[in-house]
TrEMBL record:
<protein>
    <submittedName>
        <fullName>tRNA (Adenosine(37)-N6)-threonylcarbamoyltransferase complex dimerization subunit type 1 TsaB</fullName>
    </submittedName>
</protein>
<dbReference type="GO" id="GO:0002949">
    <property type="term" value="P:tRNA threonylcarbamoyladenosine modification"/>
</dbReference>
<dbReference type="GO" id="GO:0005829">
    <property type="term" value="C:cytosol"/>
</dbReference>
<dbReference type="InterPro" id="IPR043129">
    <property type="entry name" value="ATPase_NBD"/>
</dbReference>
<dbReference type="InterPro" id="IPR022496">
    <property type="entry name" value="T6A_TsaB"/>
</dbReference>
<dbReference type="Pfam" id="PF00814">
    <property type="entry name" value="TsaD"/>
</dbReference>
<dbReference type="InterPro" id="IPR000905">
    <property type="entry name" value="Gcp-like_dom"/>
</dbReference>
<dbReference type="GO" id="GO:0016740">
    <property type="term" value="F:transferase activity"/>
</dbReference>
<keyword id="KW-0808">Transferase</keyword>
Length: 230
């Protein structure tokens, strides 16, 4: 079963192909970018699939990040993913950027740490969600201002080793300040999130696919207002 994973909701345009049957990554491409996603994504998917020597008919499902993240990026990714799913005649699975960031870590990196997924909002605030080392969520996704981060950490993060992961990891660590325990910062660039999105999508059964609707997930109103229809 081959799954296509897409992430355009963070700071990168990223594509990954995962073969669940063999447990192999077939191809991954990622490029850090804030503009030009609509022009970049489709050619990147085509190049990635050509590298793996597969076509849309070979895909069993498609995973896409649904947010929280950049408004334009997640809309581009969702629109493209819906088109790809129609072309491949396969299920489309939504994955949050926060779980994609956490799941992008290997088990050795996660061991013994509380995880804090941190995603850029492109404004002052940070999108955060804590997880245990075995990827169990410790709380719901949250929109947190840097000044409020110490209080958020005191309420949601247990003492001990902490691993902050995501495209806002460095900024989150800076806002956190002094941490009583080992602090690891893992700044990401899209590839790990796209691959994790593909792997999460591949793991879903029928109920999981039905529950993971690929609709935008916002933690605050978007900065851009879409024109009214009609």
């Amino acid at each position: 079963m081959i799954t296509l994973g897409l992430d355009t909701a963070t700071s990168a345009c990223a594509v990954a192909l995962w073969d669940a049957a063999s447990g192999r990554t077939l191809a991954v491409r990622a490029e850090m970018m804030q503009r030009g996603l609509a022009e970049k994504l489709v050619p990147m998917v085509q190049e990635t699939m050509a590298e793996a020597c597969i076509g849309f008919a070979d895909l069993s499902r498609i995973g896409v990040t649904v947010g929280p993240g950049t408004f334009t990026g997640l809309r581009v990714g969702l629109a493209a993913a819906r088109g790809f799913a129609l072309a491949a005649n396969c299920p489309l699975v939504g994955v949050t950027t926060l779980e994609a960031a956490a799941h992008g870590l290997d088990s050795d990196s996660r061991a013994g740490h509380t995880l804090l997924a941190a995603i850029e909002s492109r404004r002052d605030d940070l999108f955060l969600q804590p997880f245990t080392a075995d990827l169990t969520p410790l709380g719901e996704p949250a929109d947190v201002l840097p000044a409020d981060l110490p209080a958020y950490a005191a309420a949601h993060l247990p003492a001990g080793p902490l691993l902050i992961v995501g495209d806002a990891a460095a900024r989150t660590a800076q806002a956190l300040g002094i941490w009583k325990g080992t602090l690891v910062i893992r700044e990401t660039a899209g590839a790990a999130e796209a691959l994790a999105t593909a792997r999460i999508a591949a793991m879903q059964d029928g109920a999981g696919i039905a529950a993971r609707i690929a609709d935008p997930f916002y933690l605050r109103p978007p900065d851009v207002t879409l024109p009214k229809q009609g």
